[in-house]
Sequence to fold (187 residues):
Amino acid sequence: WAWLGIAPSPPASPSNAFHGVIVPELVHANKEGLGSLLGYASLYFAAVALGRACRSWEIQGRHVVHRLLMLTVMCYSAVVALGGAQAVSRRSCNLQYVLWMIAYNAGVLAMFRASAPHLAPRKRGDIYDIVNRHMLSTFLVANLLTGAAKLSGIASDARDLPFALFGTTVYMGLVLGTILLLPGPSL
Fold:
């Protein structure tokens, strides 16, 4: 019952078998997830703003790569400056983590943007468009399947390479198969 967030107390009578405090236990079991909501929401909105800024800079003919590199340096500098206050924490999604993720992703975007003129254009597969259209669904299905694999014990049995490759292939097939069943244009 712990996975439901119910803390059973010793029964005084058969009708009192699960007289637990459900809400506080559920909150306690998920305190990291609940505490990091603001940080992840901030990270999402920062990523959206960065994407819009990149498009705006490109339309205006501004130096996108230079701006992304400046943002990378500024965010990494802020992470270092704030390092004494609290360590970077993905679990709590604190300010240092948000800045670190913005810096990392801005740096990756700068590298992609700088190398784009040197790469041959290729047609993107339709599966990319489907996954992009259903990002949240893809994320949720992948997380649920990961949890199911961990709870079933399959993940701990994946020590030999053939089994691990088979498990990964089935996992990706289930995620993509589920996404293909969602409404909207498909392959």
